[in-house]
Amino acid sequence: MKSMKKDDHPLQAVTSIESGELNLVSLASLIRKYAPHDGRFELSIPGVYVTRDSRINTELVHAVAKPSLCIIAQGAKKVMLGQEVYEYNASRMLLFFVDLPVTGQVTRASRAEPYLSFRLDFDPRKVAELVLKVFPHGLPRVREGRAVCIAQSDRNIFNAVIRLIELMAQPEEAELLAPLIIDEILIRLLRSPIGVRVAQLGLEDTGLNGVAKAVSWLQANFSESMRVEELAELAHMSVSSFHQHFKSITSMSPLQYQKVLRLQEARNLMLTKIMDAGTASWHVGYQSPSQFSREYSRFFGNSPAKDIARLREEGFTTVDISQ
Q1: Taking the model in full, what pTM does it have?
Q2: Who has greater pLDDT, 279 or 312?
Q3: Which of 12, 91, 132, 301 has its CA 20 to 30 A from that of 25?
Q4: In the chain, where the domains are located
């Protein structure tokens, strides 16, 4: 797999944002408080999550990452999109700009020092509202890149995140102040060197937005037959332009994207609903069980039966298909 280096595509590389001393101890302490044991916890503020994991992942976690900002207070993680690897820790933030089927792995964690992270889901309507304030004279042009990037951590964003989580202890104040702090976080991202990429989340007439519309359709209808011409029309692009934009942004073709969604969902159904491979493959849209078995084995490294048996033996009762 290809790791992101500093000289890679400028929108995938480690991008410099205003740096400074990060208040990691305070942020880690707050996350521990609201993630009292291993798992992901949604806070009372919509779209805000904290996660705790006290062990390194030996099993790759397959997930559909939502447009979001991900910050680590302690530990480290890597996320894989196709053949590309994005590694981050407290010194780097990870951002997603469209829904992406990815695999993730916590690479540094222990009971004494668990992996602790924060996630803020992006609201495109709120981003669009703030773009008008941050870019009153219009956006500068930028070359389109992947729908995921890594940026250097920003102490001002860290401090805003700390203040946001601290509000959990004051529900009445949280209702009034949390939206303002989230606005602050978004404004600081928009004013950073990756701000134009963040801004495209809220704009209608961008390749990113067109691909996002197609991705939404694929997620809602992954078991249906797919016609690229219809997806291109939904994205308001020609078929050739749509193919180019989709692969540039997601690193895969629409057909590959649909296949990953189907395989992830089939795995989840077999593990959680106790379905056999044939039934699960039919539920996710496969017409041929043998084709499903071949593609499943290539993707997960084992046949459906062996893979599910191994997961159950290792104590897995669910697989995370949402970030």
Answers
A1: 0.89
A2: 279
A3: 12
A4: 2-201, 204-252, 262-313
